[in-house]
Predict the 3D structure of the following.
Amino acid sequence: MPRIQPPLDSEPMDIISPEMKAAILRDDAGLIGRPFGLTPDNARAIQANARHVALMLRDTATPDRASRAAAFAESLLDALLREHVAGPVECARGCDHCCKTYVSATIPEVLNLARTVRGQAAKTARVNEMAAKSRSVQQYVREDIRLPCPILENRACSEYATRPLVCRAVLSKSLDTCLRIFELKTGEAFAPANHSDAIRMYSLIILRVGLVLAGLPHQHVEMNHALAIALADETAEARWLAGEPVFAAVAMDIGDAKASPLEKVVNGMVAALAPTL
Ligand code: SF4
């Protein structure tokens, strides 16, 4: 089976023949959308899924390719969680402490969420209200404000199937710790369920590599404001894919504004995968 070697920077982009590209895609088929191991030998599966996201995003014949790519990444993350997180997990319906914190997402995730919110007048009004409130406060004080997510209804996520990656991956193994963090503001570290941090990281890498290879912005932005913009314009996805600065006014997550440890991994994968597309 073909195995991709990261090319040296000086290697020409056409180093991989069409036949080799076809062989790589055939090899990818059994890995795409399937849970993979969380050990260092999972690079081939991560490559296959990142290449799949890149090819989805580069398929200009599919107008909703951004939201589809996000849906794919979300579904893969869910599959990884099912495969690897055996417990304990103390998150449950009716527990909404982390839905009153700052939430950010990539634009494709926002567009995918907008698909299922669109047409719901009351929820859209809530999104607009919370977007205005979110814009009036800095990210670092959002934890003190405790604004409820506009998607929250009866203490549960009302758009569970299209919620962003972060909402899926932030799983707690200790409700007591969450209560102390969110209600008593003790400042202690979150207690992630086993493997959930690694799964979130791999999912972020796959989506980010795909976005970079498609020439699209990969940064996370404040979700409420971005969602309000997406809901206000049915052509937002097409315009964003065409390179228009549709979401330029939305504040970027400050975590994305500084150098990320993921950057080296992402850059290496982008260099390795680019000749194979
Ligand atoms: S989208 Fe759903 S899971 Fe995410 S913060 Fe909002 S209500 Fe919570």
Notes: The CA atoms of residues 21 and 276 lie 6 Å apart. The pocket of iron/sulfur cluster is lined by residues 99, 103, 149, 151-152, 157, 163, 167 (CB under 6 Å).
